[in-house]
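WARN  no MSA supplied for this record, continuing single-sequence
INFO  ligand: glutamine
INFO  echoing inputs
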Amino acid sequence: MTGTTVKDMLTALAGGETSEALVQAHLKQIRERDEAVGAFLTVDEDGALQQARDIDRKRAAGEPLGSLAGIPVAVKDNINVTGLKTTCGSKILADFVSPYDATVIQRLREADAVIVGKTNMDEFAMGSSTEYSALKKTVNPVNPDYVPGGSSGGSTAAVRADMVPLALGSSTGGSIRQPASFCGVVGMKPTYGRVSRYGLTAYGSSLDQIGPIARDVDGAARLLQAVAGHDDRDTTSAYDEAPDLITDLEKDPGPIKVGVIDEFMGDGLDDEVRAAFQTALDRLTAAGAEVVHCSFPHTEYAIPAYYLVATAEASANLARFDGVRYSHRSTEARNLKEMYTHSRSEGFGPEVKRRILLGTYCLSSGYYEGFYLNAQKVRTKIINDFQTAFAEVDVLLSPTCPTTAFKFGEKTDDPVSMYLSDIYTVMANLAGVPALSLPVGADSKGLPIGAQLITPRFTEARLFQLACHTEKLVGE
Ligand code: GLN
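INFO  complex generated
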């Protein structure tokens, strides 16, 4: 019952299979595999079984059921679920239990999904390998010598290892697509504003989005469908109707113009990743797509601009973790000032401290114009580059990452090389456009390779349709 698609699971449930049995099978898989993989920080066995039995009872009574009725879902540990810990992978929140549900969780409950547990992540979602979690090591289920990617590494590893068919992640600069690419699953970052962030711990508020992770495009579409849409409790959430992602998902997309970003295809791109990407592109062209070369001349400024904007916003967002109302409080302090400094010094890990310092520095008087303001200008240029490209093409296709998964420890001593692994993903966050990564092959070591599709803002239905089309062609 594990390792199949959500669609097949829904069919089995409609045909008499119980959600309790489905959830039991996944809990068994977690017990058997997670000691080695380390995807989960919390597994709520009793809660999950209770939810499953409630749904089975509703089904037996003929009551109307939600779109994900009985399907197990895992949740990244920066999204609040009532009664479960929200650690954000940090010592500073290691004991924090959420008193409320995030909007996405409320919507999952309305869809009758079963929340199984919370997944590991880089501390406060700052990282690209999940190695910066202060609480646990997560390995890539494909090969345990390699990182799962990050920051949503726990969620992608859980899906890859068939411990859940669906998981939620969050993306500020690539934290869903990059680990999806490394683990060989589908991961998607919605348009900025498409999904409510109420109950998501803020990292870079002008960039953050919650998004779906699944084994296939269909599963990811179903999960996004369940959680998307306006929410009065998030003032950045869009008023647009959430689109219907399912009805036309498998329809022939008609004539397509695919844009290839020339700047992504140069130095730094691994040969095997390039070859797998080219094969996917060739399949699309053989099926009738027209390829257009697009230029994104500001690509080289994307990483610096992203790491300035993200850290600036993080330095403000993380100010709330001061040991006063919640989060770790130092027992060593003799006065208020020491309580703040000791609590934060003891609670935050080195990467988070680095980001707070960098963000504070680039916002400070005398440096603001040179760093933060220039980063915002680059951001506008990148938005314009997307607009120029989308005037001509329907979709942009690129490798998701320049390489496949790297080994543990390979980049932890060199923050810049870690930052550079986000080179192809950050631009979609800076511009607020939706983007999806899907598996398109593996390298000679057997490590998965992902390709990224990007479409204009609020065109998720088209993005998923094109991804479904690509998935079929690559699978053939
Ligand atoms: N790796 C990027 C960072 O560390 C992206 C993280 C994310 O998307 N949350 O900021």
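Residues 125-128, 151, 171-175, 203, 310, 422 surround glutamine (CB under 6 Å).
INFO  checksum written, moving to next record
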